[in-house]
Write a structure and sequence with these properties.
Elements (H helix, E strand, L loop, with lengths): L5 H14 L8 E4 L2 E4 L9 E5 L16 H10 L4 E7 H5 L6 H7 L3 H10 L8 H14 L3 E8 L22 H14 L6 E5 L11 H19 L4 E5 L1 H4 L18 E6 L9 H4 L2 H15 L12 E6 L8 H17 L2 E4 L5 E5 L2 E5 L15 H6 L17 E6 L4 E5 L5 E4 L7 E2 L8 E2 L4 E4 L8 E3 L8 E3 L5 E5 L5 E5 L9 E4 L19 E5 L4
Parallel strand pairs: 3-4, 3-10, 4-5, 5-6, 6-7, 7-8, 8-9, 9-10
Antiparallel strand pairs: 1-2, 11-12, 13-14, 13-24, 14-15, 16-17, 17-18, 18-19, 20-21, 21-22, 22-23
Helix pairs in contact: 1-6, 7-8, 11-12
Protein name: Glycoside hydrolase family 5 domain-containing protein
Organism: Populus tomentosa
GO biological process, one term: polysaccharide catabolic process
Length: 535
C-alpha cells in the first residue's frame, strides 16, 4: 500500500484479525477452459458480484451507508468469492491526485459525504487511486478475489452506443491513455495476489467497432502491456457488441495467451433482440433461442483443443420488481450456466449510488443489497443462485459423471426425502442421479431405484423395476423431464410455488411447437446437470 497512513493500516490489520477467512492460493492461470491455482493446478471457480467504483465521485459505492468491513462480510456471508471491481481510466490518469473529499465537494454531495465520514472516514483524505486500492486490500483480507475491471474511460454511467467511450478513437476513448491507465493499475497491484485479474475494457460497442482491430491489435497490445507490468494477473478480453460476440474466433486464433493468462468475458440480460419473447411468445422457445445464441456467440470458445475460459462477468435481474421477463430469463440462464459450470459475475452488489445520471442516492433494483446496504434485497434470488456457487466439474476428478436434478425457478435440487418420496431441497449434499442423457431410466444413484410417473397430479415413485421407466428432456428448451404414464401420455415433473418440496407429475405445459402458447412453463423446468464432484 502506498503511504495510506497509520490509521488505515491499523484499521486493515484489525479487520484482518477479526474477519479474515481462508484465502485461495493465488495467482491463477488458465488450463484449457478452466481457471486453476498456478501452484497446485486445482480448479478455482469464480462466483462474483460486480461493485462499481468507476462513476463520479470515483469511490466504491455504498461507503456512505455501511462500514466497509460490514459490506465485505455480507459478500462472504452470501457465498460470493470475488468482486468485479470497476474503475474508469481517468481515475488513474486524470484524477490521480484528487482526494475523495475533494471529489465529493466538487459534486456538492453533502449528505453522501456525511455518510462516508460516519462509516468510513479513513478514505476521505486518500486520493482516488489510494481509495480504490484500500477497498481491494480490505476485500482481500476477507479472502475475496478481485477482478479490476476497466469499465469505461470517463467516470460516468456505462454504457450506450453513443457515449463516446465504446471503441478506441471514439471521442472519449483515447487508446494511448487507455493503455497507460491499464499499466498504472497493473503496476499498482503488483505483488497483491488478491487482485487476480484486470479486465481490459467493458463492453466494446458502437458504429466504429471492428473485430480485427479489437482482437488482433488493441487487445494484444493492451494485454502485452499489462502482462509485462504484472505477470501474475489474468487479462480479460471482452466480446464485441456489449460483450455478446466472440464469433471472430470461429475463424481466427488467439495470437497469444500470454503465458496462460488470457481469458474471455461475456454478458447477457433478459433484453436484447426484438420485442419481449419471455412474455409475448413461447417461453420454451425464448429460452431455447437464448441458449442457442449464448452457445453460438460466446460459449463455443470453451470447447475443443484450443479452449479458453469464459468468465460470464455480467448477468442480472430486477430483484425489487421481479418482472416476468427477468424471472423467466434467470431460470433459463441458470440452467445453462450450471450445465457449463461457468465462472460468473452477477450485476450487481450495490444497493444505491452516490450519484448516477444526475440523481443522488438512486436505488439499484438489480442490487444484491437493499438501498441502505444493511441486508439482502431478495433472499429468494440468492437461493436460486445457490447451485451456481458450487463447483460442479473438476478437471482433475477421476469420479464418474452423474447428474444433479436442478429446478431453476426455486433453486432447489431433487433427492429422496425422509418419507421415501422425492423432494426438492438444498443443493448441497443431495443424492446424485444416473441417466443416459437422452432417454432412459432415471436412477437414484447406488440405490437401484428408478423414478416412475404414476398419474396426473400424483407424486412420482421410486421403484426397483427400472425396465418400465423412461424419462427424457422434451420441449424446445429441453428443460421438461417427461415420462409416459400407463395411457401412453407424457407427464412432466412439476414443482409449484411456494416450493414446499412436494414434486408431482402433471400434464406438460407448452411443450409442442405452438408459438402462441404463452403459459409459463418454468414450474416444470428441471435440468439434469452433470457433476463429477462427490457429495
Amino acid at each position: 500500500m502506498k503511504m495510506l497512513g497509520k490509521n488505515f493500516q491499523a484499521f486493515l490489520l484489525f479487520s484482518f484479525i477479526l474477519y479474515a477467512v481462508p484465502c485461495y492460493s493465488l495467482p491463477l492461470k488458465t488450463q484449457g477452459r478452466w481457471l486453476v491455482d498456478e501452484r497446485t493446478g486445482e480448479r478455482v471457480k469464480l462466483h462474483c458480484a460486480n461493485w462499481p467504483a468507476h462513476i463520479f465521485p470515483m469511490l466504491a459505492e455504498g461507503l456512505d451507508k455501511q462500514p466497509l468491513p460490514f459490506i465485505a462480510s455480507e459478500i462472504v456471508k452470501n457465498n460470493y468469492n470475488c468482486i468485479r471491481f470497476t474503475f474508469s481510466i481517468h481515475m488513474f490518469t486524470r484524477y490521480a491526485n484528487l482526494t475523495i473529499e475533494e471529489s465529493f465537494d466538487r459534486l456538492n454531495l453533502k449528505k453522501a459525504k456525511a455518510g462516508v465520514i460516519k462509516h468510513n472516514p479513513f478514505v476521505l483524505k486518500m486520493t482516488v487511486p489510494q481509495a480504490y486500492e484500500a477497498v481491494v486490500d480490505v476485500l482481500g483480507s476477507y479472502g475475496l478475489m478481485i477482478d479490476a475491471d476497466n469499465h469505461i474511460s470517463e467516470p460516468i454511467w456505462c454504457c450506450s452506443n453513443d457515449d463516446g467511450n465504446g471503441f478506441p478513437n471514439d471521442p472519449h476513448f483515447d487508446p494511448e491513455e487507455w493503455i497507460e491507465g491499464l499499466k498504472l493499475v497493473a503496476q499498482r497491484f503488483k505483488g497483491k495476489t488478491q487482485l487476480i485479474s484486470i479486465g481490459l475494457r467493458n463492453e466494446p460497442r458502437g458504429k466504429n467497432q471492428n473485430a480485427t482491430l479489437w482482437f488482433d491489435h488493441y487487445i494484444m497490445e493492451a494485454a502485452a502491456q499489462v502482462h509485462q507490468a504484472n505477470p501474475d494477473v489474468l487479462v480479460i478480453a471482452s466480446g464485441l457488441n456489449f460483450a455478446t460476440d466472440l464469433t471472430y474466433f470461429k475463424s481466427h486464433s488467439l495470437k497469444s495467451n500470454f503465458d496462460n493468462k488470457l481469458i474471455f468475458e461475456g454478458h447477457s440480460y433478459s433484453w436484447g433482440g426484438k420485442g419481449n419473447p419471455w412474455v409475448d411468445g413461447s417461453v420454451n422457445k425464448a429460452c431455447a433461442d437464448k441458449i442457442g445464441s449464448l452457445n453460438n456467440n460466446l460459449a463455443f470458445v470453451t470447447d475443443g483443443e484450443n479452449a479458453v475460459p469464459l468468465f460470464f462477468s455480467e448477468f442480472g435481474i430486477d430483484r425489487k420488481q421481479m418482472p416476468a421477463r427477468d424471472d423467466r430469463f434467470l431460470s433459463c440462464f441458470s440452467t445453462w450456466a450450471a450445465e457449463k459450470d461457468l465462472d460468473w459475475g452477477l450485476w450487481a452488489l450495490q444497493g444505491s449510488y452516490y450519484l448516477r445520471e444526475n440523481v443522488t442516492n438512486m436505488e439499484e433494483y438489480f442490487g444484491v443489497l437493499e438501498i441502505d446496504w444493511d441486508r439482502v434485497k431478495n433472499p429468494q434470488v440468492e437461493r436460486r443462485l445457490g447451485l451456481l456457487k458450487q463447483t460442479l466439474l473438476d478437471p482433475k476428478s477421476t469420479a464418474p459423471l452423474n447428474y444433479i436434478m436442478y429446478h431453476p425457478q426455486s433453486g432447489a435440487c431433487v433427492g429422496e426425502g425422509m418419507d421415501g418420496q422425492i423432494r426438492a431441497g438444498n443443493c448441497k449434499g443431495l443424492t446424485r442421479w444416473t441417466h443416459n442423457g437422452h432417454e432412459g431410466p432415471l436412477e437414484l444413484r447406488r440405490t437401484g431405484l428408478c423414478l416412475k410417473a404414476i398419474s396426473d397430479g400424483l407424486p412420482p415413485i421410486l421403484t426397483p423395476d427400472c425396465s418400465q421407466t423412461t424419462w427424457k428432456p422434451i420441449s424446445a428448451s429441453k428443460l421438461h423431464l417427461a415420462s409416459k404414464d400407463h395411457k401412453g401420455e407424457y407427464l412432466c415433473l412439476h414443482l409449484e410455488p411456494p416450493f414446499a418440496g412436494n414434486i408431482v407429475t402433471k400434464k406438460c405445459i407448452c411443450v409442442g411447437d405452438d408459438p402462441t402458447c404463452k403459459d409459463n412453463p418454468t414450474s416444470q423446468w428441471f435440468k439434469l446437470v452433470e457433476t463429477n464432484i462427490e457429495n
